[in-house]
Amino acid sequence: xxxxxxxxxxxxxxxxxxxxxxxxxxxxxxxxxxxxxxxxxxxxxxxxxxxxxxxxxxxxxxxxxxxxxxxxxxxxxxxxxxxxxxxxxxxxxxxxxxxxxxxxxxxxxxxxxxxxxxxxxxxxxxxxxxxxxxxxxxxxxxxxxxxxxxxxxxxxxxxxxxxxxxxxxxxxxxxxxxxxxxxxxxxxxxxxxxxxxxxxxx
Length: 202
Description:
Layout: H1 7-35, H2 38-45, H3 49-52, H4 59-82, H5 88-105, H6 107-114, H7 120-146, H8 155-175, H9 182-197
C-alpha cells in the first residue's frame, strides 16, 4: 500500500509552503527578481536551499507563484473598487487612486510586479495580468458610456491605454530613491486617467 500523508503532515507542508511564499515575496520586494535566488529565499525562511525544492520544482515556479499571489491581490482590490459604490466616473477615479497609493506604499514589490527585469515565466504572467486589469477598466468604461457619463469610445482600447499609462507613469517613481510628492502624483495620474476616458475634470 502506498504511503499517504496524514492530515497533520499535509497541514504542516502547506504552512511551510505558505511561509516560503511569504519570505520569497519579501525578498523580491527588497532585491528584485534577478537577485531573489533560491539561496536568498531559503536564508530568509531559515531553511536549507534544498528544502525549497520540496515545495517548488524550480526558482521559476516559485517566482511565478509569488507573482500570481501578489498581482492577484492587486487585481482583486481594483475589482472591488471599480465595482463598488458611486457612479462609473467616481469609481474609475477611486480605482486609479487606490491602485497608485498601494503601489507607492510598497514600492519594491510594486516595481517588481510592473517593471523589474524577470525571467520569461514571470514576463508571461505580467501579460496575463494586464489583460485582467484591462477587463476591469473596460467594464467601468462601458458602464460610464451606458450612463451617459463618458463619450462613445472603444472601451477595450481605452482600457488598454489606461493599463499601459498607469504602469508607465509609476515605473520611475517606484524605482527612484528620492522622496515622492505622493499626493501630487496621485492627483495627476487620476486626472490623466479621467481625461483618457473622456470624463469631465475640474
